[in-house]
Design brief:
Length: 245
């Protein structure tokens, strides 16, 4: 469920189409995004979602499987099984957030990484309501990839910030730019979302490409299931529990 939430090296080009005063309001565009996904009522009717698919980093010859689980009010878990390397696992309950890297082991997120994880875990963040959106400013009409799009600066109530690109025709989310906090430091990241298909009452992106440091991570989602995720799915692994005081 990614109207709110990581892509080819998308080319973003400004288009001379007026000023901020003549552009649609950011909050109005985000409301159209919610409607394009299937509507607020359809989103509110869902308690949890489980998405599954494949993971690939073609340049490195890396492949694997991916599972994303989310539930109300703010539970998230992302698991990537990478062939020949191991399992990358991360999660949040909206308060704490953690990660297990197959190379460096378990850790609790802090600082900006924690704020980002908490914001992403908010199940109703995709509704872009006032409890989630502190500021939504339409910056320009631009081209993201090969599509005309509205460029919106989004600041959340968790004091996180990212730039969204909504398709100018469908109003679906097709791109995100953000600075991610990683073990290697702050890293500009571009994410493109596309190949939307309808699963149940909601439109979902089935191709997600994240680009950072010139490398692409490609996720292809093959299924979305609603209200099937048990609460136990979000229990931190023992190695993480040992870090929680």
């Amino acid at each position: 469920m990614l109207c709110a939430v990581a892509i080819t090296g998308a080319v973003v080009r400004p288009m001379a189409v007026g000023t901020q005063d003549t552009l649609p309001k950011g909050t109005d565009l985000l409301a159209k995004c919610v409607a394009a996904m299937g509507g607020a009522d359809a989103i509110k009717a869902i308690k949890s979602v489980r998405a599954r698919g494949t993971f690939e980093m073609a340049a490195q010859g890396v492949t694997g499987t991916v599972e994303l689980q989310q539930a109300r009010p703010a539970f998230m878990r992302l698991t990537i099984d990478i062939q020949g390397i191991g399992q990358a696992d991360q999660g949040s309950d909206g308060k704490i957030a953690w990660a297990i890297d197959p190379m460096s082991g378990p850790s609790l997120l802090t600082g900006k990484a924690l704020a980002d994880a908490r914001a992403e875990a908010q199940f109703d963040g995709q509704l872009f309501g006032p409890d989630y959106v502190k500021e939504a400013t339409t910056l320009a009409k631009a081209t993201f990839g090969d599509r005309p799009a509205y460029k919106i600066r989004l600041v959340t109530t968790f004091d996180t910030e990212r730039t969204l690109y909504l398709d100018a025709d469908s109003y679906l989310l097709i791109g995100t730019e953000a600075v991610s906090e990683t073990p290697m430091g702050s890293m500009p990241t571009t994410t493109s979302t596309g190949d939307y298909k309808k699963f149940g009452a909601l439109m979902q992106p089935t191709t997600i490409v994240q680009t950072a440091m010139g490398f692409d991570q490609v996720i292809r989602m093959t299924s979305f299931e609603y209200d099937v995720v048990p609460a136990s799915a979000f229990d931190p692994p023992p190695a993480v529990k040992a870090l929680i005081k």
